[in-house]
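can u do me a favor
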């Protein structure tokens, strides 16, 4: 991601803030995580038990 966004001069803190806000919006709208290959347990990547909304 760093290479892709390098020209935009986005700081790590700004990038993290966007990710945190995205998770909050998905939670507010009760968007369920997608399970599949390469999943991890972080909220942004859709971790959690099947049928659970983002935490």
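np, heres the sequence
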């Amino acid at each position: 991601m760093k290479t892709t966004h390098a020209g935009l001069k986005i700081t790590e803190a700004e990038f993290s803030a966007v990710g945190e806000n995205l998770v909050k919006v998905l939670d507010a709208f009760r968007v369920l995580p997608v399970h599949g290959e390469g999943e991890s347990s972080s909220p942004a990547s859709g971790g959690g038990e099947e049928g659970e909304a983002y935490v």
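The CA atoms of residues 36 and 46 lie 9 Å apart. hope that helps!!
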